[in-house]
Amino acid sequence: MAQLDVRQKLEILADAAKYDASCASSGTAKRNSRDGKGLGSTEGMGICHAYAPDGRCISLLKILLTNSCIFDCHYCINRKSSNVRRARFTAKEVVNLTLSFYRRNYIEGLFLSSGIIGSSNYTMEQIVEVARSLREDHEFRGYIHLKTIPDADPELIHQAGLYADRMSINVELPTVSGLKRLAPEKDNGRIEGAMNGLKTSILDTRDAKARYKSAPAFAPAGQSTQMIVGADAATDGDIVTKAARLYDRFELRRVYYSAFSPIPDASAVLPLQRPPLMREHRLYQSDWLMRFYGFQPKEVVAAADDATGMLPLDIDPKLAWALKFRDSFPVDVNRAPKELLLRVPGLGTKAVANILTSRRWRKLRLDDVARLTVSIAKIRPFIVAEDWRPVALTDKAELKPLVAPKKQQLELFAA
Fold this sequence. Notes:
Blueprint: H1 6-16, E1 48-51, E2 57-64, H2 91-103, E3 109-113, H3 120-137, E4 143-147, H4 154-163, E5 166-168, H5 176-182, H6 188-211, E6 223-229, H7 236-250, E7 254-259, H8 277-292, H9 297-302, H10 317-324, E8 331-332, H11 338-341, H12 349-358, H13 366-371, H14 376-379, E9 383-384, H15 391-395, H16 400-403
Parallel strand pairs: 2-3, 3-4, 4-5, 5-6, 6-7, 8-9
Antiparallel strand pairs: 1-2
Helix pairs in contact: 2-3, 3-4, 4-6, 7-8
């Protein structure tokens, strides 16, 4: 095989990393080099663009250490039997690339993953060496996200956590049966064992930090994971239930969802078509309902179709739940607690906060609520205001056509 220069390797390994969705840089400790010491920052405005919860755009160098792998997972473009062009960075090359891109103001951090070469321990050693060199040799203070290899020695994973802001271990597929069928060399028990080890280290470090300021930080931005959607027969209900269990058991910061994309020379066990991208979007909305709107997992699952277990694609899960459980409405915007207001379709967390603040001073009318939201038409059937009661709408047998978003034909030559 011909020798590749760094530019050619970057082209191959940056493209190979695009299938990993768990690439956000929120939640870490704030560091910068304004005092003249070190290099880099985890602050400021943000090639891979990730978005923090406050809307900031963070640019990360997102690459694989190598796209060679000893595993043969059916869904992976970099699997052992895949006919793709292979490349491999040295640890020093990744360090130099990161520093070079940072100095050009292209990036604010590094997202590093890898196929498994030689062994899990050898690969993890190379990943740790990249993070160690950046932090210790070059005093890099920017964001570092490392993908962890579950089968690696726990001590190597612990070392990685001392240098990384966030670590992640992909559970890959929502069901154990799906993992056994599509990735037989991977084991759900080992994956969750490694995730539990990360959780323990994060909690231990948090406790030590509370007692001793000099205690070293361990993955201050926590851990995340990713699930592939549509590669197996798992329903949206299965995925939501799995995500809720992961959040509860391992205190994850995020669960990412990645719609399966057909790959060249695909295995016969894989579907021929990718799932609708809207399905991925609906799962993220469901995730938001559990994390920020107080919905229980079983309530989100209840919004799915009883026969198929799939969330509707034409309306969001919150509206689907409200239409299915209309006995919970209407909600009085002047009297209802925050928990009930958050269940009203069309009311986001900011709108609810503004309603709670405004109603302390006067009774809210329908026009007042309209000024706080994007679409009052979607909200009207589900609320009571000082001058509004949805009597006719509440009794209407088929409410969905009135509140579902209207389908629009896109303009070919829109300005």
